[in-house]
């Protein structure tokens, strides 16, 4: 009985120790990314499809046939293929719209499967709500038809108007049809017979590519992977791997790798957005930020003669007030060398610097050679 209690306590202690170790190691494991999240495999890719079609059944919100002659010609051609002759008639319906249909053909999509399509008005149509897309072939970059779409258009926006006001929400000339296209042709690709697979990094980097290669070799216990360039890692498929290529890629994409980042500052001057990378470092530099603000205020006053006076006239007398603020209270802020991203942000915030001024400061620091990073202006 005593031995059983000892073993029970020993098992409980081992369990608690294992839980504690797991808690300590969890943040480090979660900091790494899966290979499938930072890279893609050769051949496993989507294909873009596009087509031209007609949407009918609109409530008077279709194309103007006089302004959009291609819509009229398309409608005449469709009716003639159905045996209806409309060449001699004045065809000008307002319930038809010419549209561009786009879709993405997923990798390994099989014949008969369905994909979603997006509808966009091409002419003067003001609303696609309630319309129906007629049969539209979708072609790839090679000109081949890979899918055919048809269905009821779903529009997220709407237009409500009266005689004096119009309210528009969203984009009513853009819609979507879920599962509207049927795949008619498959993209040929033999994955199971491949002897080697190339892994393409979404953000090419020498260090990240080597880490992926080392992680694969460590997992398989043999040197079957090596980086070819900053954006490509070559993986040779072992002949005796259980499950073949599909099983190998399934296991490889779950491996966790810590991707390396460039020291980069991304600036969008139009919106005032600044994104600073983790590895950005600043040498010792002094920063001062000050603006010259001139405020001109016009307060005109009216001067008029005394009551019952027979002389004088009412005039407007201008009154101008000018204020000049040179930010005389601004001080230099010293940023020590090798500071981190958080230190840089704290120093700039201490100066009360806004996003627009911060862009100019970062560019000036880079021009002074004190920023060990790349600045990318969008």
TrEMBL record:
GO terms for biological process: bacterial-type flagellum-dependent cell motility. One of its GO terms (molecular function) is structural molecule activity. It is found in: Bacterial flagellum basal body. Pfam families: FlgI (PF02119). The basal body constitutes a major portion of the flagellar organelle and consists of four rings (L,P,S, and M) mounted on a central rod. PANTHER family: FLAGELLAR P-RING PERIPLASMIC PROTEIN FLGI, FLAGELLAR P-RING PROTEIN. This is Flagellar P-ring protein. It comes from Roseospira navarrensis. The lineage of its organism: Bacteria, Pseudomonadati, Pseudomonadota, Alphaproteobacteria, Rhodospirillales.
């Amino acid at each position: 009985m005593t031995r059983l209690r000892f073993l029970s306590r020993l098992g409980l202690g081992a369990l608690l120790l294992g839980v504690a170790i797991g808690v300590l190691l969890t943040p480090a494991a979660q900091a790494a990314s899966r290979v499938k999240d930072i890279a893609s495999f050769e051949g496993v890719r989507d294909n873009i499809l596009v087509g031209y079609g007609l949407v009918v059944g609109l409530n008077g919100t279709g194309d103007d046939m006089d302004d959009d002659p291609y819509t009229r010609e398309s409608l005449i051609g469709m009716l003639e293929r159905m045996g209806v002759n409309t060449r001699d008639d004045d065809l000008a319906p307002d319930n038809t719209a010419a549209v561009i249909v786009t879709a993405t053909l997923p990798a390994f999509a099989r014949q008969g499967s369905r994909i979603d399509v997006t509808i966009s008005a091409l002419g003067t149509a003001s609303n696609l709500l309630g319309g129906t897309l007629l049969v539209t072939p979708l072609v790839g970059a090679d000109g081949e038809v890979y899918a055919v779409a048809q269905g009821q258009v779903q529009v997220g926006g709407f237009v409500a108007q009266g005689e004096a006001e119009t309210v528009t929400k969203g984009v009513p000339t853009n819609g979507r049809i879920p599962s509207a296209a049927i795949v008619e042709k498959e993209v040929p690709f033999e994955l199971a017979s491949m002897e080697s697979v190339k892994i393409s990094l979404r953000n090419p980097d020498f260090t990240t590519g080597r880490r992926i290669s080392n992680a694969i070799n460590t997992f398989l216990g043999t040197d079957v992977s090596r980086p070819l360039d900053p954006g490509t890692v070559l993986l040779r498929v072992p002949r005796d791997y259980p499950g073949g290529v599909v099983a190998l890629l399934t296991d490889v994409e779950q491996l966790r790798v810590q991707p390396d980042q460039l020291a980069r500052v991304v600036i969008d001057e139009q919106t005032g957005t600044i994104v600073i990378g983790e590895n950005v470092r600043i040498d010792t530099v002094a920063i001062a930020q000050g603006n010259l603000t001139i405020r001109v205020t016009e307060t005109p006053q009216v001067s008029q003669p005394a009551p019952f006076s027979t002389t004088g006239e009412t005039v407007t007398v201008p009154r101008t007030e000018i204020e000049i603020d040179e930010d005389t209270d601004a001080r230099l802020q010293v940023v020590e060398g090798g500071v981190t991203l958080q230190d840089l942000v704290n120093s700039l915030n201490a100066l009360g610097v806004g996003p627009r001024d911060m862009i100019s400061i970062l560019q000036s620091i880079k021009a002074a050679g004190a920023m060990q990073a790349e600045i990318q202006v969008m």
